[in-house]
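Suppose you are handed only these lines of text.
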Amino acid sequence: MPAIVRLAETSAPKAARTSDLPIDLAVGGLCKAFRGAGPVLCDIDLEIRRGEAVALIGANGSGKSTLLRCALRLIEPDSGSVQLFGSDVGKASRARLCRLRARVGLVSQRHNLVPRLSVLSNVLHGAQARRSGPRIWYQSLAPHTERAEAMDCLDRVGLAHLAGRRADQLSGGQSQRVAIARALMQAPDLVLADEPVASLDPAAGEEVMRLFVDLTRWRGLTLVFVSHDLDHALTYADRVIGLRGGRLTLDQPAARLDVDALRGIYG
Ligand SMILES: Nc1ncnc2c1ncn2[C@@H]1O[C@H](COP(=O)(O)OP(=O)(O)OP(=O)(O)O)[C@@H](O)[C@H]1O
Ligand SMILES: [Mg+2]
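From them, the structure of the protein bound to magnesium ion can be written out as follows.
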């Protein structure tokens, strides 16, 4: 696929010492309970540095999505702190919070494309997320440079030839690749991906996951992805963290883990 070839040509060197890199996401003493559901997150401490690829695993209902949503303050935690790029999310003004969120690309299980718009227009929406104001770019209104950038993002995910197709005429795998192109168009520093390939068949899931991780590494982005696929966690992450019973009970480099060790988080 052309996207993979281009990645190989442009791979960026990894930084020599991880500890020198800035902390993009820091969570301290985070607690969250929902009425009726009891405590979901209890005293979570976590630091994720620039360029790390981190898999977040845990059984259904263990709080993975809640943790990602607290990181963006889409859910208000009961106590504890969250810092994004060194700024306290809980104390940020509305404007500051918008600027912090603009640096985070969100990819979810449901790709949330606008069905009636073209693939290219959907990718252009990623550019909207990085600027303030309610302007929406449609394909025909976007400046030439932005269209060229969106086409490049589509080329990266191997879908430039489908730029003019309506989003509701794509397969699940193609839709998820467009969602990744849209997130890249946002030019984020950090990507939070909540089960990005869960709706895809195993072959498409493998292909999209590899592409996704290659692209984030090539751009030097920090990546946190939720997955129930333990092979994906071990293959595509530098580090695996796991939630169980509301607590972070696993935080290890992927190289030191195997599938049996990860299964313990579900036991
Ligand atoms: N808005 C909410 N109101 C009440 N309870 C909620 C809310 N959001 C999540 N919960 C509960 O919090 C718990 C954790 O949910 P969360 O979605 O974070 O789990 P998860 O680890 O992402 O699970 P899955 O693997 O199924 O996606 C669940 O028991 C869920 O029912
Ligand atoms: Mg979830």
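What can we learn from it? The first strand starts at residue 23 and ends at 34. The two ends are 39 Å apart (CA to CA).
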